[in-house]
């Protein structure tokens, strides 16, 4: 019998029989020595047993993954994610902004030798934090300690509404009335609901934790509990396949799990492997086939449920492809399922109704999902072009693809605005979160497409349009940072800003890409260039944008992120820009910025390490490899490019 949650006024301590899957916990944060950050079990350890293997992913071991996907040295696939991400910071790579600093940094007696030590200390603390988080969530998981632990109902209500108000309102997975009915039944009789609903519930709550601001009586333990819930749902999904077949409920759990993993404090760079799992489930259930054509006997509710889930599966696959540079596992000609209809959930008809409901012309609970799916085929073509080793599109065809997507995006944004201005009193209107997430998910494709050509504009005016489009798209995406960072020391309260700060890599990854492009743009503009690439843009506006990105990177670190590279890179870039404008020595300005940003990172990470359960200081020695970033994944492969690029500061 599976485990059950237990509602209470606080966290439940009821004990239940342990799962048949036993997870060894003799190596937890309490067993960490005083000299080095903690280690966790590896795949070669005889005691190793992890439910993450279903997803070819697991906890971290000293900053590295259990499963290494390393092609042969002579393989053309080597560094495929780096190749894909190169266009986002190609300007920085080719300018070699910090090459003159390399010798000074690697000189152990030099003025800037301390920067090397600070950087390595930051990475050791970051690895320790991630390792402790991984071992803590395994130790606290209900697989080991008994039943799933939930907060009091008032907190659960808040977390559930957070999810329904944000992700569910944009990328549809659940049928809200059915989910709420089961939710009420759970609080009446926790043992009377299904196992699959319990996993939907804890994943919904886990995702909802990243939308809690300080005004909500913030409990820092909720984020740790969310990680445990995600781990438990992942393990349950493994076991469930042994006793039940694939169905829509299982697919809903799988889709929720993808989002929960992306918002988890325990970061992973191999989520792109996990995304293929719900895709295979969806194909097995034949969700890629249009219900009205292939399954005309289905009720309206069932047909819409299938369309929504298919749209959610494709959205996850597309975003994962853009993040990783790995081609999508499905092409445009492999499905004919139409976009979800424009219905509110309560209007959908089940079997027995004489007439199906007609689509609304106004804004509904499925409008955003409908809009995103209508752009899917164009965005998939862009992703296919970017990840292809031999792109079939010419530059002219790429521009046509960009123009079509831009026109469709603008048309949808106009419709969303009209829904707001023409709405009758009391009727639903799109929220700021919905509009921002919609624009971001679409326009990141435009940034990736034009960024692929933008760096060539310095030498060939043929690509000037792509340079201009990439810069404008970057600024469009980053304007959300401008609005959320008025006070970089305070936790934002609006949903989209909270997603940026606390939502792991869902949004922040391509916002960093946009910032890197702006950095390269400004630095290129202040150096000798045969073409005035940004003559129509204000340099002060661009530097202000970079400063906002720096403030956001600081906020992310305070909120639990462990990646130091964004803050260091953007701080050094801004220092370079200011030193040229103020006619100050560039080398000293850049190194001072590196020292200052690393000192901030060190203090935050040291505090975070102590909060994760280690009270003793680390004795971190400096290696002999110069200022090379250790093999540490920061949660986004953009920085893998930075580490290996010709920018000698990071080599």
Describe this structure in words.
This protein is mainly alpha-helical. The protein has three domains: about 85-140 and about 455-615 and about 620-650, no CATH class; about 150-270, no CATH class; about 290-350 and about 360-430, no CATH class. It is about 55% helix and about 0% strand. Helix 21 runs antiparallel to helix 22 (about 540-560) and helix 22 packs antiparallel against helix 23. The chain is globular and about 75 Å long. One of its GO terms (molecular function) is RNA polymerase II cis-regulatory region sequence-specific DNA binding. InterPro entries: Fungal_TF_Env_Response, XnlR_reg_dom. This is Zn(2)-C6 fungal-type domain-containing protein.
Sum this structure up briefly.
By secondary structure, the protein is mostly helical. The chain has helices at 80-85, 90-95, 102-106, 113-140, 142-145, 153-165, 167-170, 176-188, 195-208, 221-243, 248-262, 271-284, 291-294, 300-324, 367-374, 376-387, 395-421, 432-454, 464-484, 495-502, 505-526, 539-558, 565-581, 586-611, 638-644.
